Amino acid sequence: MQPAADLSNERYSDGIVSQVGHAISICNDASEFERLRPEWELLRQPGEEQDPFLSCDWFAKWWRAFGESRELYLVTARRNGRLRAVFPLMLERAWRHGIPLRRLAAIGNDHTPRFDLIRADDDEHLHRDIWNHVMTLRNRWDVFDLPRLSADSTTADRFVRLAEEQNVNHSLWQRAPESPWIHIFPCWDDYLDSRSANFRKALRRKMRRLAAAGRVGLETVTGREELDKALADGLHIEAEGWKGSNRTAISSQPEVEGFYTELAGVMADRGQLRLHFLTLNDVRIAFDYSVIANRCLYSLKAGHSSAYARFSPGTVILGLILQRAHDEGLIGMDLLGDTDEFKMHWTDATHTHQWLHCYSDSLRGRLLHLIKCRLLPTIRGSH
Predict the structure, then answer these.
(1) Residues 349-380 pLDDT 10s
(2) Does 12 score more than 80 pLDDT?
(3) Which residues of 336-371 are buried (b: 16+ CB within 10 A; e: fewer)?
(4) Residue 197's CB: how many other CB atoms inside 10 A?
(5) What's the whole-model pTM score?
(6) What superfamily in CATH does domain 2-176+353-381 come from?
(7) Other beta carbons less than 10 A from residue 122's beta carbon
(8) CATH architecture observed for domain 179-351
């Protein structure tokens, strides 16, 4: 591990330096994930599981699959020797608005549902110390991106205040995708009563139609024992439909398949994996790849066999998953991704995200800020 610029004992407020005591360090070696794992897993609220997207295992598997062309920039903060926070960042070359740029960003891509500073407690000084460290690197980046921050996170608000305080060009955007969120009622009938009469009627009709074709079941795989065969079946099912044709299925790209395959293994070991299958006469016809934490299901991927499309297997499997979730005492299911029409039939609630972009004083940084915050809004406003 290499020490960062020495801001560990300094806090800046109106030009005055005061003692705080966070030791900020950085690491560029992926082996650090394994070394940090025991401490990282303790960075959560008492009595709660860590958000699966913020776990050490998630970032380690992501980096193994997608990190080859990027530089790891793993920021850690310690106080009195104890790990207080991890800020998983990366440096990469990218293009935006036709401009080549140096991008410092949260580790992630389209396969990362959300991001945040992983921390032991809500310490405002901690945000400031990490922010100050990132700002010492402005000669290395043109844009600093934090995408998919949860709207209820304090990270965006505090970083925006610090940007304003230090006159750093920035923009904060709240935009789609907003993840559809299904509140799970104590009773299944209560959930159905919360939906429209047309929705209830259509759901029951589709379930009856499939039941008339044979024996319907919901199979769930959670452990390593059956994982290889189950995952292979699930990826095959997902690729049968439009995702396979559009090359957006998991199996369409080796690095994506590698990520979800290795992720399934570690989530099974953590007891958080839920591979659901809709079966008809013991044949798997629809698939849902979910993980569970804090009594909530997070649906990462789903698909169904095109050969059974007339039976609406996507609707039926989600209905059966929700029924079982009610029976198991879960409190919610996050469908993740976009607020498409299918998902919004099931709920009126969404999980909102924010994108924070900060710009350096480099020529490219100033140009990108001008385009993002001045030119594009002007062009959109003229139409």
Answers:
(1) 998 899 999 999 999 999 999 999 888 777 77
(2) no
(3) bbeeeeebebbbeebbebbebbbbbebebbebbbee
(4) 9
(5) 0.89
(6) Gcn5-related N-acetyltransferase (GNAT) (3.40.630.30)
(7) 12
(8) 3-Layer(aba) Sandwich (3.40)
